[in-house]
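Deliverable D2.4 — example input (structure tokens):
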């Protein structure tokens, strides 16, 4: 005999809504991505542009100890995601997308001017509390990947931003992925004409190499963590740092190897694509899941860089990322009445985020928007829509066999076992 509890559980069994946009072609999917990029980032960028972000209630939990750095937290995460798109060429895009890009770029620049101005009341916090180095590094990464975002003749902004990045040096990074945050800040300082601290960069790259354990995975400190931080931070940061300092020899490093980093990042992109279920979901394991689709940062980063491995066809990656984004943005109460993202994983779940994150940390979802920097005529956007790996296999189709990094070059059976 069934208990009342079991009957209630059976009657409330949840059902996921079927995906719609993921089945469409690249043109319609791009329109969807542009719409979501504007929907999510515009409320923050508009407030920043008029110097009202700090008092806009962005955090949602101003009683928390770190609530006063919500402005930098949100803006850093938005800029690292959309800056490559904002500076990309307009050829081939629709008039609506061109207008959206232009407006968002103007808002972003105005926000950077007020957020770095030492005399402006809306200046963001760049030096109080350790978390500032995390978010300052994302601003630095944004201008490294999209140096045209800040005009060369905007001397005041460049000077103020340099001073703000230098102010974060009061923070001693934790002995984990945070080493990469300090290193990225130094790269930003170097780009803006300051004197980078080579020790902060070289130590970070040397230490991360010692933490590499194989098949694209790094330990996040002395111990391995089963979470998405290899995707969130480690691979994109390592690639950008190795590339930047290989081309800008103001610091002599002993360990940079761009090809090795790209090989590892591409393999990690393969793994992430296989994590995406036929329903557009992924394993809910590890911390910082409140970043939502942002946990697939490395997959979007590799795709946006035209570095997808042979096993990943651009059309299938586009459809896979679209499925995940569609799943998240379809949630009720994704945003509050001001248009700011609510905390949570799917929809509004205020008790879900970690203690060290503000509601503004959810803007890491913006990292997936970087694929918009690719032209509509690129393989990523123009290729036919295609099922991703798990959808192919779970529907009875075929996909390439999966092998650890480097193992595809080896014999599948040891010669001693062949009759």
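Example output (designed residues):
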């Amino acid at each position: 005999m069934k208990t009342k509890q079991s009957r209630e559980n059976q009657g409330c069994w949840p059902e996921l809504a079927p995906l719609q946009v993921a089945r469409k072609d690249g043109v319609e999917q791009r329109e969807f991505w542009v719409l979501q990029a504007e929907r999510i980032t515009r409320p923050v960028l508009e407030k920043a542009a008029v110097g009202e972000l700090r008092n806009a209630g962005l955090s949602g939990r101003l009683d928390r100890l770190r609530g006063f750095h919500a402005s930098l937290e949100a803006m850093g995460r938005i800029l690292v995601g959309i800056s490559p798109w904002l500076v990309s060429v307009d050829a081939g895009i629709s008039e609506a997308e061109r207008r959206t890009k232009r407006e968002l770029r103007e808002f972003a620049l105005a926000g950077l001017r007020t957020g770095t101005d030492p005399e402006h009341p809306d200046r963001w916090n760049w030096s109080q509390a350790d978390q500032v180095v995390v978010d300052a590094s994302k601003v630095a990464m944004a201008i490294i990947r999209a140096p045209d975002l800040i005009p060369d003749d905007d001397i005041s902004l460049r000077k103020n931003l340099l001073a703000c990045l230098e102010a974060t040096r009061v923070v001693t990074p934790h002995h984990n992925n945070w080493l990469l945050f300090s290193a990225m800040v130094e790269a930003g300082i170097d780009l803006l004409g300051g004197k980078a601290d080579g020790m902060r960069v070289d130590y970070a790259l040397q230490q991360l190499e010692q933490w590499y354990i194989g098949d694209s995975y790094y330990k996040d400190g002395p111990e391995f963590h089963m979470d998405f931080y290899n995707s969130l931070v480690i691979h994109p940061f390592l690639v950008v740092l190795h590339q930047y300092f290989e081309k800008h020899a103001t610091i002599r490093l002993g360990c940079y190897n761009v090809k090795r980093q790209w090989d590892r990042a591409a393999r990690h992109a393969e793994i992430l694509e296989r994590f995406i279920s036929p329903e557009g979901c992924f394993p809910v394991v590890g911390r910082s899941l409140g970043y939502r689709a942002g946990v697939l940062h490395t997959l979007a980063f590799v795709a946006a860089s035209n570095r997808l491995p042979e096993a990943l066809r651009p059309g299938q990656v586009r459809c896979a990322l679209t499925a995940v984004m569609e799943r998240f943005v379809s949630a009720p109460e994704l945003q509050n009445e001001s248009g700011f993202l609510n905390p949570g994983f799917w929809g509004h779940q205020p008790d879900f985020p970690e203690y060290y994150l503000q509601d503004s940390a959810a803007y890491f979802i913006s990292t997936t928007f970087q694929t918009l920097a690719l032209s509509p005529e690129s393989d990523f956007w123009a290729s036919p829509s295609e099922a991703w790996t798990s959808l192919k296999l779970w529907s009875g189709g075929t996909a390439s066999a999966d092998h650890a990094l480097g193992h595809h070059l080896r014999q599948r059976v040891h010669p001693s076992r062949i009759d």
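The mean pLDDT is 91.
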